[in-house]
Design a protein that fits this description.
Layout: E1 9-14, H1 18-29, E2 34-37, E3 51-52, H2 54-62, H3 66-72, E4 81-85, E5 92-97, H4 103-112, E6 118-119, H5 122-135, E7 139-141, E8 144-151, E9 156-162, E10 168-178, H6 185-189, E11 194-209, H7 213-216, E12 223-226, E13 239-245, E14 249-256, H8 267-278, E15 286-300, E16 304-305, E17 308-310, E18 316-317, H9 325-344, H10 354-376, H11 379-385, H12 393-404, H13 408-423, H14 425-428, H15 431-435, E19 476-478, E20 484-486, E21 496-501, H16 506-518, E22 522-527, H17 538-542, E23 550-553, E24 559-563, H18 570-585
Parallel strand pairs: 1-2, 1-10, 2-7, 4-12, 10-17, 21-22
Antiparallel strand pairs: 3-6, 4-5, 8-9, 9-10, 11-14, 11-15, 12-13, 13-14, 15-18, 16-17, 19-20, 21-23, 23-24
């Protein structure tokens, strides 16, 4: 059963969402035989996920599809004026500079990454991932439902159903990836341990078309939060009018009481809710779709069992607050794919795969906790206005009037509101949550540097570092043509990188020896040569090593090992680098 021709594919990916699509694209890019199956007839039919943060854009950049994403997405300057209001045409309660577009955070965002955050609805992201996966060799089967699996020490056998023909068949794979969403059959069948609670609150999506440019173009945003009677019941904290395409395609989110029977949302009721949150009873509205869903607070404490690995919503289920869902899903795939590829090619030991759960499960728990806390952090705004779940229009109007009053009480409320709105930075400007992930696993070799000290809030402020377990910092370099390239552009592409300075020539020979000894692709980059000059001095300020020191950077851009300076001899350099690679690769 270990012969290549005994397998139908190397990796079977179940699910074509952001996690599954990314996994298929990454594996195909790395030359791994991949079969992607989905029970649906096509990709996402509603624009559920949309915020695409800088780290995910870095993944797309490494995959060579960043330009496609930029062409399809709405740019950051149309994203950031998050509005709190009584209706889109009603009174403004306040605004929040979001997604790093405010002058106070713009420098930090632009200095941390070569990539911009964009708004890329799932209906646009999924085709980019899946079509490129197919173009690079992945096999894609729609209308193919996963039913069950059995695994042994050599592989996984999955039973699938062709939903067009109606017959069942089996696929034999070395490994299986369950990316089949929040009701994951794969995660259930392998018994992944889940913590938390499903079904915290009820929510509905209404996708519609309406020309709202006159209400939005002067305060461009992807999110308009609406305080209407019932806004505190269920849902994601308040009513939400979300831009899909500026300014005529929208997704509205409204809550319902999960303790009561689910509401019936026909086209007439959907149109009524839309007009109510917009504030125009005569607004021409085209309803595209409606759906009900529940707010969840659930995460897996382990992401794999044997040869089966899960990712995306299968292992972290939470409200869309903070825009973390699809981003975390793509990054799950980015973490796992290179490990699978190297194990399948015989370049790494199976123990490398244990680092997937060790590294990504803590991230999954963090984002589930963060998204649910952000949902709850609308509470202080309600308290300042004196409104609750049973408030009517009169109560809301009275709260706004008290807020606007030119009295000492009005001034007090305005300061309270300012504090309450500032708290929402943890949802709309949580740059640290997005960029400060630190991995602890067997695929990271900790050095003797002092424990990391956080001067700023690690959820709000990104702090690049080259300490092992952190993502390689971005710094602008200049190539031989004078063009700018990022440090992130000289690593990745599915291989390990030995990163040193111009005086670190000892590591060139060490890398060549390791390539021969281990039989792996290993890139050596010396910052300071003609292709990567540190023209701005940015790298020297963040490298964390002497010029002749070294970083061993994994294919996913994370630092696996660091040496502050070169050892005394070339033989020592070779032995240390070889030892580090063997430990990281489980060899």
């Amino acid at each position: 059963m270990t012969r290549t021709d005994s397998y139908d594919t190397d990796v079977l990916v179940v699910g074509s969402g952001p996690a599954g699509g990314s996994a298929a694209l990454l594996l195909a890019t790395y030359g791994i035989r991949t079969l992607l199956v989905t029970k649906y007839g096509w990709l996402a039919n509603t624009p559920r996920a949309h915020i695409t943060n800088q780290r995910t854009m870095e993944v797309l950049r490494d995959l060579g599809v960043e330009a496609e994403a930029m062409a399809q997405g709405s740019p950051s300057h149309l994203m950031g004026d998050t509005v709190l209001c009584t209706a889109l045409m009603g009174e403004e309660i306040g605004r929040i500079r979001s997604w790093g577009t405010g002058p106070g955070s713009l420098t930090e965002y632009t200095s941390t990454s070569p990539c911009q955050m964009i708004d890329l609805p799932q209906t646009y992201l999924e085709p980019i991932l899946t079509t490129n996966a197919a173009a690079r060799g992945a096999k894609v089967r729609f209308d193919t439902e996963f039913l069950s699996l059995t695994q042994d020490e050599d592989g996984v056998t999955a039973v699938l159903r062709d939903r067009v023909r109606g017959d069942e068949f089996t696929v034999r794979a070395r490994y299986l990836v369950g990316a089949d969403g929040g009701r994951s059959t794969v995660a259930e069948q392998i018994g992944l341990p889940m913590d938390g609670r499903m079904g915290k609150a009820g929510s509905m999506n209404i996708v519609f078309k309406a020309d709202l440019a006159q209400h939005c173009a002067h305060r461009p945003s992807v999110l308009y939060w609406v305080l209407r009677p019932g806004a505190a019941t269920g849902g994601i904290g308040m009513g939400l009018v979300r831009m899909v395409r500026p300014w005529n395609e929208w997704l509205l989110v409204w809550g319902y009481d999960i303790e009561q029977p689910p509401p019936s949302v026909d086209e007439e009721e959907a149109r009524r809710i839309v007009r109510d949150l917009i504030g125009d009873p005569d607004l021409p509205v085209e309803i595209t779709s409606t759906s009900l869903w529940t707010v969840n607070h659930t995460y897996a404490s382990a992401y794999s069992s044997g040869r089966v690995f899960c990712m995306g919503d299968a292992v972290h289920r939470h409200p869309p607050s903070n825009g973390l869902g699809s981003n975390t899903s793509v990054q799950d795939a980015y973490n796992l794919a290179w490990k699978l590829a190297m194990v399948i090619r015989g370049e790494a030991g199976p123990a490398l795969l244990d680092s997937y759960s060790a590294e990504r499960a803590p991230v999954g728990r963090q984002i589930v906790e963060r998204a649910n806390l952000s949902r709850d952090q609308f509470g202080p705004i309600f308290e300042t206005l004196g409104v609750g779940a049973d408030s009517d229009e009169r109560t809301i109007a009275e709260g706004i009037a008290a807020l606007r009053a030119g009295t000492a009480e009005g001034a007090k409320r305005r300061r309270q509101l300012e504090d309450a709105i500032q708290l929402k930075n943890y949802e709309f400007n949580a740059h640290g949550v997005e960029m400060n992930q630190r991995y602890v696993s067997g695929a990271v070799l900790v050095d003797d540097a002092p424990a990391e000290h956080w001067e700023d809030d690690p959820e709000l402020v990104a702090r690049p570092t080259t300490r092992p377990g952190a993502k390689l910092p971005h710094a602008w370099l200049v190539d031989r043509e004078g063009e700018r390239v990022s440090t992130l552009d000289v690593v990745g592409k599915g291989v390990f990188t030995v990163l040193t300075g111009l005086s670190g020539g000892v590591w060139d020979a060490a890398a060549a020896a390791c390539r021969d000894e281990l039989g792996i692709s290993l890139r050596c980059v010396r910052i300071g040569d003609d292709d990567s000059r540190d023209a701005y001095g940015e790298w020297s300020r963040v490298s964390g090593t002497a010029e002749d020191g070294v970083l061993l950077v994994r294919p996913d851009g994370y630092v696996a090992w660091r040496r502050a300076s070169a050892p005394e001899t070339a033989l020592d350099a070779r032995d240390e680098l070889l030892g580090a690679l063997r430990r990281v690769l489980g060899r």
